[in-house]
Each structure stands twice: as structure tokens, then as C-alpha cells.
Input
Amino acid sequence: MATLIDTLKRDNRPRHPEKAHRPDKPIQRKPEWIRVKAPGSPKWAETHKIVKENGLVTVCEEAGCPNIGECWEKKHATFMIMGDTCTRACSFCNVKTGMPSPLDPNEPEHTAIAVEKLGLEHVVITSVDRDDLADGGARHFADVIHAIRRRSPKTTIEILTPDFLRKEGALEVVVAARPDVFNHNLETVPSKYLKVRPGARYFHSIRLLQRVKELDPTIFTKSGIMVGLGEERNEVLQLMDDLRSADVDFMTIGQYLQPTRKHHEVVRFVTPDEFKGFETIAMAKGFLLVSSSPLTRSSHHAGDDFAKLRAARLARLGH
Output
């Protein structure tokens, strides 16, 4: 049985105090098409060492990503800035919830050093939600982007941001720092927001993505959802249309996997053929790129996908 003890920090505080008294939900046995390689290779260990030496947090660890073994072996890690504690309490997420610590002013430089040491051609930077900050952490995102540019000017930068809900002017600060890819995940269809993503607003997230393109049309935009949460197929297709109306370039679709018995249950496991069908339909709707498979995650194969994005844009422009 999965527990809610914060084993990453080796103490007895619950990672999710708001979920601690909820009734347990069953965890379904994973189907044969969801199998991943266990971490532990020498290259994985090297990546782990660089991350820890610089006092950094990765979403790979905090969210329990199933692809950590594959990605870290390739020296690909998604850095999670602004601490390891989120001010939201989404029912799908394994990142710790509570009151975060103050921002670390040295984090931008430490992140840039790690990117340089890993020799990354493409890096993904994400964060916890920081509703406690006046700008939601926008300036910190910009500082991290600038620090990486100084040390690794050839590295392309992808950011996966919170929604900056009720943080006027925050998005403009982040876009002005000119990341190469701006990712903000819708996570699920609007009918599931109250249970799955209660602190967020679906159409605010759509508008956020649309606004990025209005501010800087050269930035690639990206968004992802999980399936298996009880959504209907027609809802997923409508969500695709909503993203295209916001001129989003890249969509990812992956299987929701339940972190613990206290989290939202897996309603069903979507088959690989269904994922392939979603990819075909989404491409027909006009996305530059779609990644749709059971183990697709926002940052999985991000570097390779960025190269495909650039090529797809050039091809569409006739170059």
C-alpha cells in the first residue's frame, strides 16, 4: 500500500496533509503496456549527483515520474524551481503541498551551473505553484532563464509554468525573458476541474496560452493533459479545439497514474490504439506536433521534440 509519508525528506510529515483523512481508493494493476526501466545506471547516478550537489529539486523525483530511469540515463532532468512545496492541492499530483519556504536567491545560478555541467542542449524548467508570492514567481522564472543564457547560450529553454492566476503582469515578465517553449498544462477536461484541479480555472489557462502568442508569436506554446480520469472522448476532442483556438503548437496526452491511495483513482487505462487515435485527430486539427502515448509526459523527449517543432514550423512556412 502506498503511504503519504515524505520519504524524500526523511521525516514524518505528510506530503499531502489535505488528503491524509480521505478514504483510501483502490490502485489498479497496471496493464502490460505500462512498463518502465528501473533507475540506477551509472549515467543515472551521475545526473543524480549533479542535481544534489547543486541543491536542486527535480519534478522527476517529486512527482514520481515513471520515465526517470530513461531520462536521467540520458542526462535529461526537469528542474523544479521555487522549492519543493506547492500552494495548490490537485488531486492527481504527488508534489508536496503546504506553505513554501522563501525563494532561494542563489537558485538561478545553481540551476545554470547544473545545466552547464550536464551539457544540456535543451533544458526544461518547471515550478510548484507559488500563490503566496505577489507575482507567482514570475521574476524568479525570468532570473533562471537569464542565468542559463549567460552560462549556456546555445541551450534552448523550455518552461512549464503555473497559471499565474490573479497575478497581474506576471505573464509579461516571463514572456519578456524569451524562453524557446512556453508550456502550461491544462491537465484535464473542464468538467473534471472541480475534483482534479480545484485551484485552477480552465478558461484562464486557455487564455494564458493565447496571451503568450499575442505577446511573442515566435515562442512555441505547448500544453498537456492526462487521460483515464473519467473524461469522455468528445471532451478531449473539444479540448483540442480550445487549444487550437489559442494557437497552441504542441499537445501532449498521457495516461494518468495514481501516486497513492489518497489520490484520484484511475478510472480506466486508455489503450495504445486510443492514444494513437488521439494523435491522428489532433494533428488533423492543426497542431505542429502531438505526443500521445501511455507514458507521454510533458518533458519526456523534450529536446528531440523541440527539434521536431522547429522543423514542422519551417515546413509549414514553406522553408
Notes: Strands lie at 78-81, 85-86, 96-97, 122-127, 156-160, 181-183, 220-227, 250-255, 289-292. The first strand starts at residue 78 and ends at 81. The chain has eleven helices and nine strands. The mean pLDDT is 89.
